[in-house]
Fold this protein.
Amino acid sequence: MVLEAIKYTPHSLAILDQLRLPHESVYFPIKNSVDAFNAIKSMIVRGAPAIAIVAALALAVELANTEFESADDVREFVGDKLKYLVKSRPTAVNLSDAARKLENLVNETEGDAKTVVRAYIAAAEKMLVDDVSDNKNIGKNGLEWAKKTIGSDKFSILTICNTGSLATAGYGTALGIIRSIHGDGLLSHAYALETRPYNQGSRLTAYELVHDNIPATLITDSMASVLLKTHPEIKMIVVGADRVAQNGDTANKIGTYQLSIVAKHHGVKFVVAAPTTSIDIQTKTGEGIAIEQRKPEELVTVRGPVVDKDGKVNKEEAKTVHIAAPGIGVWNPSFDVAPAALIDAIVTEKGVAEKDQNGEFHLESFL
Ligand SMILES: CSC[C@H]1O[C@H](OP(=O)(O)O)[C@H](O)[C@@H]1O
């Protein structure tokens, strides 16, 4: 069975509720832009490519179920809804990139209201299809780069957060590279960071690795340094991206920056996997990337199914528990920035970006 975060048919959209994974697999209906905004904001769906696609398709469903007097009414409606959806999460560029492309499309499409609606829906549906093929190309390009750079012996890989089928339309980006390296017989073992505080690693990446029967081990974020020190077979850290600046600085899940430092110290390749829709050529460096601050409750509470006295997980009963001293201050940035200087390669669907002899990336050639 293929893992599907997004279920779409013309006029209807449902997303896998990622707040209930890994213990429950429940699809959540999305009828319009408000449903999509709330699902993205609350992280029922998350992952830079996935939130862009869900936003685009939610508006497609809403348009298909709305009557318009004129083409200009459609254009105004689409513009307003996309501006609203972009506000749901600020750091990942995929959402604002998709919104810009879709707004331009409807403004450039001539004809009556139904023609403009049809053009929007076709473009949104193409994003869903293109994302999966882009991810498979990222996987292929990452595998070829690994063979060239690391060699043809089996090796192990460490990753953070969730960058798989649950963060995209399918296959994944960084986890897509792990899938491709595993599929080629070159993967010895995958290590997944639990990725506090939202636990995308322990809840989502672990779920995908078990689903695909990929040999893997879950570790806490604090174990990453000593794991590299004691496991020389780990030759690569591969991470996703929420926004890659023009110079290659990359915003990704909180904890990524320190992995780039640890990788450098231990001589491990640090690789970013990102579709070109994650590259923001207008933002010159990582200094220009807005970092989303999330609410303290995500750090001081944990929700999950109750484990009864004999260790059995009771999926019928979920509880939220408080795990910090009441009254303590909380800092909860959702992302940080790995500097281009510590990144060995940025793997896209169009090829692999590496730094020139001056230590500079040239990402514009991939757009
Ligand atoms: C291919 S997913 C990219 C990116 O999105 C995730 O963030 P979040 O789970 O908060 O949406 C994480 O940073 C992934 O690396």
